[in-house]
Amino acid sequence: SPSPSPSPSPLTSTANQTAQATSTETKAVQQGSTSVQLQTGRTDIKAGDALSELDKAYRPTREMVDKIAEEGYLLVTWANWHYQDFVRTWVKQVQKVGITGYIVGAMDDHLLQVLIDQKVNTFSMKSGLSLGDFGWGSPTFAKMGREKIKLIRVFLKLGVYVIISDVDVLWLRNPIPYFKQYPTADILTSTDQLQNTVTDYSLEYWPRAASACNIGIMMFRNKSLEFVDRWIDVIEKDATVWDQNAFNDQFRKGVKDIPNEPQNLFMAYNGQLKMGILPVSAFASGHTFFTQRMWQTLNLQPYALHATFQFAGTPGKKHRMREFMLFDDLPEYYDHKVGFISFQFDGLAELLKNAGPNTGKMELANVEGHFKLVNHEILRVRTALAIASVLGRAVIIPQMWCGQDRWWAPHPGHIPGSNFTLPFPCPLDHVFDLEGGWTKELPEDTYGPSIGFREYSFLNNTKVSSAVRSSRVVIEVCDAGDATCSDGSSGGKIENDRLRVQAGLLSEQLRVALAPASNFKVLEFTTMKSALKNFTSERDWTKFYQRLRGYGSIWCCVLAHPGHIHYDPWFDIPHIDKFNKQWQTWQPTCGP
After folding, report:
1. Is the pLDDT of residue 128 over 60?
2. Which of 55, 150, 261, 468 has its CA 20 to 30 A from that of 143?
3. What local confidence, expressed as pLDDT, does residue 53 receive?
4. Per-residue pLDDT band at 185 (split at 50, 70, 90)
5. How confident is the model over 429-454, as pLDDT tens digits?
6. Quick count: other Cβ atoms within 10 Å of Cβ 398?
7. Residue 147 — pLDDT band, cuts 50, 70, 90?
8. How far apart are CA 294 and CA 400, in angstroms?
9. What string of DSSP letters covers 170-233?
10. Element (H or E) spanning 541, and its range?
11. Is 49 a residue whose pLDDT tops 60?
């Protein structure tokens, strides 16, 4: 079956490679190990600029590849300019863990030139494809995947062991010593398997770990070249065949166990190749890393994570990496021109008790506790977003909790094949539409000001300056009518880094009450419960209402058609949802 959420930028490369040279579409290798700081400030590079001199100067040869290979291995990724921030993060992480044998394929001239300027090992893949987001499942995405496989062949023919890595894979340890432990393996591959068959760093047991392999992390040795040729032949002959499906179909032909094999290898491809399945805890998918956090449960240090199994496209991948402080944003991300709002969820303890599966069946009654929990959190987030809109600040969203997992098909709480404790700390994209709602550019005259947001770990990130972290005041939300707290008629008084305001103020009252704290970078609210009653202006409320209609994502699924349920940020009041459906009393309901 297709990988649930493939890399944002698989690749294009070339066909008809030889051992000594490649075609004119695969062009440049640049030496260097300087730490990368990709910037977007250059205006002299255009998508169509000719780079013929670079084509000639940097065409990869065996000699050039040998200079950057690490103990005979070469770690390869690729991207276009749209994913330059993923490239920056990928390279920074590779350098951090001490990998020197790496190279980045640039699919357009813009990215190529920047990588060369930054002394990043790179080669040209002038693909003629879009500089934008490929869009999973699109014809461009499919073409890009085919070129990725050709890239494996290019570097195998240049005499190195190839470690292929999607650009949304983050390397947390140098994998080369790991791969060297399996010298007889011709192919090692990651998998979409959700349950581990080993509790250490061993390869998974085949066939107990027989789920679809994921081609986002793979290692190939020279003997696999004939298999790679066949793989390319299959996908070139039929444009409807997905590269990952073709890989799985080909290697499974004639697959068989190796009696008394000590390393969990098995014979594949009609007995011609030795293969192994990389451990799902240490070469983790988006589910085993971010959702199950299997590496924590087993007390292991993962080698890599691949941002699959997520639900909000490129923004979702970024946010998950940011939550674990692994995405390399530019310095301006770690500050804000006005500042931030932070808070923690109240009242979770009781809700968590009944948030897991209620009946164990794939029915609406099974998810009642889950939606009570998540809707409680949505309500608090909505209030924080409203306050941020009023004050012009960004919101630091706390760690979300979910009672049940999310998937693309019916399930009773866990995705089939997975096993972890419910409820669980869930990624933000399980609940909110980060791609179509939160990060979408909307006209402010209709939707009000855009609202910045940050991940729950933001203030723990060492990239946030001490000046920002220390510039903090606690906003204590008192009972309404408490005369010792500001009622919004004048600014509140800051005492011992604390400012007290009454609950239930209107937006202009809250703005006045918090004015004395305007120079502080972080306003830390003690609660979001009743922290804001409403907007003073009905027009401002209407704009905010329109903006948030698109912020909710879906939970999937019960056994019905349709089986998904949309999260609704306005669930608690009579309203018209984003499908123009009128609600008096919201309740979990399948479909729009």
Report:
1. no
2. 55
3. 72
4. very high
5. 999 999 999 999 999 999 999 999 99
6. 19
7. confident
8. 18
9. EESS--HHHHHT-TT-SEEEEE---S-S-SSSSPBPTTTT-SPEEEEEEEE-GGGHHHHHHHHH
10. helix 538-548
11. no
Give the whole-angstrom CA distance, residue 341 versus residue 439: 18
Cβ–Cβ under 8 Å, residues 521 and 472? yes
Secondary structure letter of residue 272 according to DSSP: T
Average pLDDT over residues 374-381: 98
Closest among 244, 219, 28 to 124, alpha carbons compared: 28
Q: Where are the beta strands (DSSP E) in 526-570?
A: 554-555, 565-566
Two tokens at 186? 């011709």
Peptide bond into 478 cis (omega under 30): no
d(CA 307, CA 182): 25
Average pLDDT over residues 292-308: 98
The total number of residues shown for the chain amounts to: 592
For 10, phi then psi, to 5°, come to -60, -175
The β-bridge partners of 213 are 191
Distance between CA atoms of residues 554 and 534, nearest Å: 26
2: CB partners within 8 A, 6+ apart:
242, 244, 245
Q: Which helix (H) or strand (E) holds 498?
A: strand 498-502
Token look-up 């085993």 returns: 288
Beta-carbon contacts of residue 215 (< 8 Å; ≥ 6 apart): 3, 148, 164, 189, 190, 243, 244, 247
Helix (H) or strand (E) holding 162: strand 161-165
Give me 456's structure tokens.
């729950």
CB atoms within 10 A of CB 35: 11
Kindly provide the b/e burial profile for residues 524-563, where b requires at least 16 CB atoms within 10 angstroms of the residue's own CB. bbbbbbebbbebbeeebeebbbebbbbbbbbbbbbeeeeb
Question: Per the structure block, which two tokens stand in for 322?
Answer: 């940011």
Q: Cα dihedral angle (394, 396, 397, 399), rounded to 10 degrees?
A: 170
pLDDT at 182 over 80: yes
Residue 377 token pair = 């959190």
The residue-averaged pLDDT of 67-73 equals: 97
pTM confidence score: 0.90
Greatest alpha-carbon span in the chain: 82
